[in-house]
Amino acid sequence: MDADAARVGVMLEQATAVTVLTGAGISTDSGIPDFRGPNGVWTRDPAAERLSSYDDYVRDPEVRRRAWQSRKTHPAWTAQPNDGHHALVDLERAGRLRALVTQNIDGLHQRAGSSQEKVIEVHGTIWAVQCLSCGERSPMADVLARVDAGEDDPACLRCGGILKSATISFGQRLDNDVIDAAGTAAHECDLFLAIGSSLTVRPAAGLCDVAVDAGAPLVVINAQPTPYDDLAEVVLREPIGEILPALVRHGGNA
Ligand SMILES: [Zn+2]
Asked: From the CA of 165, how far away is ligand 1's center (Å)?
């Protein structure tokens, strides 16, 4: 472990309330594509981002039919958590985790063993479906079974409204309660780790400002430079699946 990583290990040893923010970079080793990274789906094909826009989804049944077909084969159904996800479970078991804020919708933190009450999904989850009219939530598997049975644009069973994965689409309003919880977790932590996030998308990126303004050191672990590198105490570029387990082991040996 080099000097910078060793410094982060010491910071983890001394912290009692770590808030972690994870982005796509922690899930790429699990085979989940990164939409905004250098080789991301949306970086290479900006028009593809528009295809996931909320307004188009509401307006156009054909967009919804395509979305349901695409959900059937989402990589999250078969992806397995990797060593980076497992390291954050270890951090929680060591009693040092305040909250795990994630921009990811893949549910891999919970599948690795992170507690549901620690995980704050600012962009929602692909594992649930929500009615855009009445707000009713149901498991994604139940609705995909209806799609398999021939409903190409299944409607809400309670009110007939449009159903959509419980994720935040381009142009869709964020969930205020979730954003508030993330802000509180950033404000109350004594160390903020931003892992695998480009830190270019609000509100997640702004959590770094909240943590630093509240006096917590910021550590950025990401393969590419981020707009927050200058604000960080330490920036690590190592692969997440290698460096994170080493850091947490270091902290756990205190
Ligand atoms: Zn409904």
From this structure: 13
Instruction: Kindly give, in sequence order, each residue whose CB lies less than 8 Å from that of residue 126, ignoring residues fewer than 6 positions away.
Output: 71, 74, 76, 105, 106, 107, 140, 165, 166, 167
Instruction: Measure 119 CA to ligand 1 centroid, in angstroms.
Output: 26
Q: Is residue 123 annotated as part of the catalytic site, yes or no? A: yes
Cβ contact 29:240 at 8 Å: yes
**pTM across the whole model:** 0.93
Q: Give me the residue label for tokens 């620690």.
A: 118
Residue 62 CB partners (closer than 8 Å, separation 6+): none
Locate tokens 């549910």: which residue? 107
Query: For the segment 25-52, what is each residue's pLDDT rounded down to a tens digit?
Result: 999 999 998 766 555 666 666 666 666 6
Active-site residue among 74, 85, 86, 123?
123
| pLDDT tens per residue across span 51-90 | 668 999 999 999 999 999 999 999 999 999 999 999 999 9
Cα of 127 vs centre of ligand 1, distance in Å, is: 17
Taking the centre of ligand 1 as the mean of its atom positions, its distance from the CA of residue 122, in whole angstroms, is 22
CB 192 within 8 A of CB 132: no
| Average pLDDT value for the chain | 92
